[in-house]
Amino acid sequence: MTSQLFDEFFEEVVARRAIGQRLAERGDRLSTDDLVEVVRHGPVLEALFVHAPLDHRDIEAHLGVSRATSHRFTRWLDDEGYARRVAGGYELTGPGQVAAEEVLRLEYNVVAARRLAPLLDSICEDHQEFVVEPFAEATVTVADPDDPFRPLRRILDLVGDSTTLRGFNATAMVPPGVTAFYDRLFGAMDVELIGLPSSIDSLTAAYPDRVEDLRESGQLTLYSREAFPYGLLILDDCVGIGGYDEDTGTLRVFVDSDDRTAREWAERTFEAYRSDSTPLKAVE
């Protein structure tokens, strides 16, 4: 996705938050019953969206419904202007195609929200820049009482052979004591990290010589700022977001994706936070 397309996508996502207000101002809000009817007819809308034209027998076979139900479905579609008769049965009208797409999108995003719930519950509500859609099919790794280090192991697996790492609040996701991560970090990687001042101090205290040598060589660039809503990692092949337990500050969930739109979002987010951070100079 190009930067211009991403900008348009993100602007459209942000604009959705005012949809209800705009509809109300125009007097165009649908009743709850009308919305429920559209969702209830989602299966037949989808069947026609994918397989049209379909006659009543086709609808009955696709949906496993009775003849009476298939006729009731087509009457509703006709009354709402969502389908029309053609040779071979019924097909969706333009409004019907939009309705079918939006019902599918609703289901897709509701399923995504359920999968991403551990992360969404961890993100500060004041930070609305996170966009669900690019992460709808991401891998979600959640800590549990029997295996509290699952998210950390996922991060270690992903770092693998990556030659670059950019991100913020990484030291909260991977404490300096996890030498496997920092051996890789201080190896053949080009690294840009934004951290809390205390986190940067902890990293420098744990690896003073290595940090300073890499900063002097330009292989490691550090920035500091006072607060983060979550953790972010950008690797060669994927991007990941970490959410924390409010009480303990430990990594609760890590969500990673190789989706191009997710990467574009992550890069834009990193750039925004970097521009609002203080670069740390190497000791001369």
Automatic annotation (TrEMBL):
Residues 148-276 form the Methanogenesis regulatory protein FilR1 middle domain. Residues 32-115 form the HVO-A0261-like N-terminal domain. Signal peptide: none annotated. This is Helix-turn-helix transcriptional regulator.
